[in-house]
Amino acid sequence: MRRRMSSNAEACLASSAAKDAVREMDCLERKSLVVWRRPLKTLQYSILELFGMLIGLGSRLLNRRFLGSLLALVIIYKLPGPHASYMEMGRQNLGFIVYWMGLGLLSSVGFGTGLHTFLLYLGPHLAAVTLAAYECHSLDFPAPPYPDQKICPKEPYIRKMPNIWQILSKVRTETMFWGVGTALGELPPYFMARAARLSGKSLQQEEGPPEKSRRLTLFDKSKLIVERVVLRIGFFGILLCASVPNPLFDLAGVACGHFLVPFWKFFVATLIGKAVFKSNIQQLIVIVAFSEDLIGVLVKALGQVPFIGSKIQAPLHNLLTTTKQRMHHKMSENKQESDAAYTGFGIVTHLFQLLALFIAFYFVVSVLNALAQKRCKRLQLEKLEKDELAAKAEKNDSPKATHRGLPIIEEETIEEINA
């Protein structure tokens, strides 16, 4: 009897080791699905996963409640009444709201590999408004062309140097909608982890078996700190992690979803942190950095850099001068100075365009990798479920097994025990 019990224990250990090995192989296979290693397989899986997601989204949009709400909104918009002026105002501002919210969504979606739209769009917009405010001594920029172009009002106009808080108020709307978009971009990790937990899967199944002997890196320690802060402090922990520039906040969403933190508790804390605190902190940093005094100090400090300081200082000074003149609808009378300014401006523009293309390319590649790995994981889970069902069916068909999978004690074994 003891021999049989020991053999059963050895069989269980062997089965557990085999499952860990299979899980590790599946994890390695998912990680190998990247564009630079397996391009054809990655493209195939990503396209199929994208089509599946679009089909699922289309089926959800055909829901009766959504179609009924959309029809009611169209009827209210078409009906005459005192609300017509507000509806028209909302229609005119809809593009502005969708634009900045969409940029915020792209910035945070994708598990840390999102498109850095603050660096590409919102940051330059804030910097241009700050420079124009200090140059024009006014915030009453004519619209249009504002916000596409920041130019001074036509003379004569009242000149009054705006302070930092007035500049913050000028660009607060677009910054807030950008922050709302970043908060919406944090929802996919939360819902994915929550669905995995409710379906009975743990986070360890996605990352492979734990390695107890492996030392924790700085990144792993940072992940553990974020998870502990979120889970121990609760609402204020989520608010704290969302209120500061934190590239690991996706892990906070995963932790909240895995431990079934209520949706409104997670989303409200994230929304307040992203749209109110974090966006205003970033906005304030850019406005202070591009104030007139700091820009002048920066240009003078660049001139003191040995060897290359004077070569960088002259184009930058000409660029700032030409930009200020364009705000007043003026151009430089000295043609050489104007050409040098445009040359410097062209170099800066080309460098910025190259940076934008690189970031956009990295974002597209990251999305393709994520979609391919997601489909691979789905196929692996389906195969694992089929194997488990087949193993259960085979065990049930075995004549020497009960309905619980326990071995039947034969008559010879009972006689041996009695002897």
TrEMBL record:
The chain crosses the membrane at residues 66-85, 97-122, 229-245, 251-272, 284-303, 351-372. Keywords: Membrane, Transmembrane, Transmembrane helix. Signal peptide: none annotated. It comes from the Eukaryota. This is Vacuole membrane protein 1. It comes from Drosophila mojavensis (Fruit fly). The lineage of its organism: Eukaryota, Metazoa, Ecdysozoa, Arthropoda, Hexapoda.
